[in-house]
Amino acid sequence: MLQLFRLLLPFRASVAVVLVLALAQSLANLYLPRLMADIVDFGIVPGDAGKILEIGGLMLLVAVLGTLCAVAGSYAASKVATGFGRVLRGRIFDRVAHFSVHQFDRFSTASLITRTTNDTTQVQQVLLMLLSMAISAPMMAIGGVTLSLSQDARLARVLIGVIPVLGAVFFLIMWKAVPLFQQMQHKIDRLNLVLDEGLSGVRVIRAFDRGADQSRRFDQANDDVTGTAISVNRLMALLMPAMFLMMNLTSVLILWFGAVRIDAGEMHVGAMMASLQYAIQILFAVFMVTAVFVMLPRAAASAERINAVLDVTPDVVDPAQAANVASRTKGQVEFQNVTFQYAGAEEPALCGVSFTALAGEVTAIIGGTGSGKSTLAGLIPRFYDVNEGRVLVDGVDVRDLRQEDLRARIGYVPQKAVLFSGTVASNIRFGHDTATDEEIRHAAAVAQAAEFIDQLPAGYDSPVSQGGTNLSGGQKQRLAIARAVARRAEIYVFDDSFSALDFATDARLRAALNADLAAATVFIVSQRIGTVMNADRIVVLDDGRVAGMGRHAELLKTCEVYRQIAESQASLEEVA
Ligand code: ADP
Ligand code: MG
Asked: pTM for the whole thing?
């Protein structure tokens, strides 16, 4: 909570303006009934036209000033609240952008989206309410009671009796509504999750003919949100009539007792009218305060959810004193006895892995599915921090480098090619902002993508849809490779990046990479013997451990795991 308040600090000047305007508006509102009493008692009743004009003019002035303050106040309050929402969303996004890959696993994407949008809106709305109520509600309530006491003490007792009753009614309604409000956010999360899965998995859903099932899931989540919303709104709907009932009852009481007292000559008509107005103002203030209290719990639940994101301290952080990279520019990568375990996993994904990859060489990583290849590849750009041992780049622990400096030296191609909406060229340029068209073409040529790009209707300016869904798997992989090649890095990591390519393209690609990345440290992760057999060094992974290391010919003799992989694929190679 404190954290959120701190975000409000830059708005303190505007908040002060809002509060001053609210104060002025409240004073005007409190002054008007007083003037009304005067105009009735000293102008209308005695029939003094001059007085009527004089007081009437004053009333008009006060009313206009009050209205101006009200308009300016709500304008300023809206500006503060929306500005605050903007800052808050920015903060959440910023924090999420610095999440380590681990920390992403803690929140679902859907939940992060709800938190950034819906939850921020809740907080923003309650802030707006608070800003407009913070001064005026207490002023109206306390000022109203005091002034109506000054008008007529006996009549004011009616009010003092009504307020607690009203408070109790509102409290009861609130008490019922609060838990429902808290459920709402949770259910909206769920709705977003189902929606997200339904949209991103649409092909699989169609293929397995689970559309009806998916619709049912969505309907259920949707009904769930609707049900809760209806329950909440039903309760909230009670508030208004309850409030009007109380107002009218109070008016009747005041008129009743007022009439009796006026009859007895103990009170003026104007004073009674003023009392009536104060009563309405006071009840309205109580109503507003209740409304804030109704919104508070939902906003508090939202604030808590926002804080849960803001409170995450990134676990992959830059060192206080970054090691100097300028003097070392080779790209040698060394794993020293590395053990790594995913948060919440039972067993380490990598265990005691040691090897050195030299610049100018190709280091291949081979192993079965789940043997830890992608995990190993992800440790080089420091997506995770190791549990034991060290990953060194040119002799410097990656944890001693600034992430930006480290990653600037790495061209990484993920196992699952990820493209962004834009054009073919913009996706390749993602690896290197300032790349010239010539460089883009060269990268595409190395990645064996030039041919298919040239066949696209608009060539390099052809659109790529979100996630690259308008391209084939192999085309996506080649664009992802071109993106990395365009980077002109010292270290290249190809995580199973050739798996969607046919053998011939795979071979041509590797030959082109060999020529183009001759000076770099290249990691090729694969399950195919054909892809790794020409590497300078092959690391064989089995269940997170190094089962063997060396060249193809040696490993065939010395490493059982390697030989088995080779044998199982031998016939395939022959066919190819
Ligand atoms: P490979 O790339 O060789 O197929 P991975 O490195 O992806 O294997 O996975 C190695 C092991 O780590 C597997 O047992 C897998 O289940 C586990 N693993 C991978 N990613 C995660 C994750 N994000 N959280 C927990 N366990 C994971
Ligand atoms: Mg993998």
From this structure: 0.74
